[in-house]
Amino acid sequence: MPSLHYISHAVALALIAMLIRKYIELKIYHDDVMSSCYFSEANHENSEVENEIEHETPPKAPVPTSDDPRFLTPEYLNQKLFSDGSSVTCNPTDHAAQRTCHFVNLCYFAERDSYLFFHSDKSILENIPVNRYSPTLVELSSVTNHTYNHFNYIDMPVSASRLFHIKWVTTSSLIIRRFKPDNLMHVIHDDILPLFQTLRHFNLAANTSDRFHYRLIFDDEWGEGPFLKLYDILSVYQPIFKSMLREAPGLTCFHQAYVGLVKSTAWYDYGFYKPQGPLPERKVSSIEINSLLEYTRRELGLSINTDNSDYLVLVSRKSTRLILNEIELSLALSREVRTKVIHLSQEQYTIEQMIEVVSNSIGIIGMHGSLLTLAMYLPAGSILIELFPYAVNPDHYSPYKTLVSLPGMNILYRAWRNMEQKKSFGHLTMGNIEYLPHDEQQRIIFQMEVPRHICCNDPSWLYHIYQDTEVDIETIISLTKEAILATKTENNRAVDKIATNFVIPDKVTHDSCKTMVDGSKQIIIYWEIPWNLQFFNYEIVEYEVLLQYTKSPEKSTIFRVSASSITLEPSDSFYIVWVRCCLDEIHIGPFKQIACVE
């Protein structure tokens, strides 16, 4: 019979073996967890990127895949990369500015500050231009034709992917490059509106009322910026900054990455190649603007009550382009217009607070500057009065006028320009004109108007736009009263121009051809208005009439008429008549053929 000593020894060995086994299991689990981390929060205080594999369903990839989000572990993704390599599908276009691409297994290599594409016999490259460096494959910003925004990748064999340590981002990602995130005009116009439209285009929301299920990748050198909240509310995940990518050793690979923005929401050209101005073929309207506004207000939890709007917003600048008699202007507005005035500044309000204040106001008054972009949040029937320093022509700098004039915005715009140099106070440091010869300084200072120029460092423009101004209070009061009165008149007889912004008239209807019986043998062509126009409001309806002659088919004549008939002189051959409707001078419908014989 074994002694108690041997029994105790056996029990101790079994216990030690069990503890060793448990330790090994915990060690393996710990290693698995650590390998699934994207970025360590300890290495970046601003990083809130989850240290676990996310389990959202990835969007449709450009190659058939059996990926199950439950199995998107680093080991699984590594094997998929080693075997399948990378793939990319772009929309079919010849223009980089219009191109968007969807990548599978796109990898960022911090050491080279480049993206790598690993080619295998399973890689798919769809709609990739033959020369993707002419000028580039994709633009990372909605600001077009600027080399700062160019994106491309470096070709690598799939065998090389095994040489790197890899960290994975399994969430669907959208890679962009912010143009100027410290300026609200650039944030809204260049980033937020195009982002919102792009996310809806790729259908990256689980439901229409949800935040989007993707991760935003900032491929730029900027920090967070003062308006990061507007980016944050577009995603259920925290963004990844380029500084975070650079800290990761080896490769950071994106399982699903979208590159390129939908640019149809842009309305302004900043003037890199010609003087700035509205884009000639703007496609954006209040439909796109209001969709973003509704989303923004909901996600920020803002309280909107336009029924009790009874105050004006006066934009207050604290460093440059000051209104030197701002307090006097505010008191006069309150007294003469009989309304409260709220002073709004970026230094004293958060972006959420600014949006809420503007959304419940009756209008904005302020010097030309990026905070006037908040006018997009004004209720319909509001006013925007933009003030300009001396020598700055409002007609040459109109991003905010263009914004509130988009179809359906229904915001009345007025501009005031300082015409008295004695009420203008400039700074030689602005535009660096202090370093110019004295004669050149004097020429700029005493200019009556800034000449047209290219963006962005023209010394005359920079000197004059940053001038402080003593504004003409009486004129601004009069302008404000007139604008408020005009909004009431406009609202009473408003035409819903948004309804016809994208409307194409159908073919003309009930057409007929009759010959006069009075001996003149004239032919009268009749038609009726396209049937779908009865459902829309419009201002101008005209018709183009194209005549062809059967005996001389190369001969044709074009008329434009406002009536729904035309009288033709007799001819020795058949007339072939084509008629089409033109709505508000720009929206042209299809031709309808009418055959007539003398």
Summarize the structure in words.
This protein has 598 residues and is of the alpha/beta class. It has 3 domains: 41-266, no CATH class; 277-498, Rossmann fold; 509-596, Immunoglobulin-like, CATH 2.60.40. Helices cover 25% and strands 24% of the residues. Strands 1, 2, 3, 4, 7, 8, 9, 10 and 11 form a 9-stranded mixed sheet that branches. A 5-stranded parallel sheet has the order 15-14-16-17-18, with helices on both faces. Helix 7 (326-336) crosses helix 12 (473-492). Pfam families: Glyco_transf_61. This is Protein O-linked-mannose beta-1,4-N-acetylglucosaminyltransferase 2.
Q: Can you give me a brief rundown of this structure?
A:
Helices cover 25% and strands 24% of the residues. It is of the alpha/beta class. The chain folds into three domains: 41-266, no CATH class; 277-498, Rossmann fold (3-Layer(aba) Sandwich), CATH 3.40.50; 509-596, Immunoglobulin-like (Sandwich).
List the helices and strands and how they pair.
Layout: H1 4-35, H2 74-84, E1 87-90, E2 101-109, E3 114-119, E4 125-126, E5 138-139, E6 150-151, E7 154-157, E8 166-176, H3 184-201, E9 215-218, H4 228-232, E10 240-241, H5 242-247, E11 251-259, E12 268-269, E13 277-278, H6 286-300, E14 311-315, H7 326-336, E15 340-344, H8 351-359, E16 363-367, E17 383-388, H9 399-404, E18 412-417, E19 424-425, H10 438-445, H11 459-465, E20 468-469, H12 473-492, E21 509-515, E22 523-528, E23 541-549, E24 552-561, E25 565-568, E26 575-583, E27 587-588, E28 592-596
Parallel strand pairs: 1-4, 3-7, 8-9, 8-11, 9-10, 14-15, 14-16, 16-17, 17-18
Antiparallel strand pairs: 1-2, 2-3, 2-11, 5-6, 12-13, 19-20, 21-22, 22-25, 23-24, 23-26, 26-27, 26-28
Helix pairs in contact: 7-12
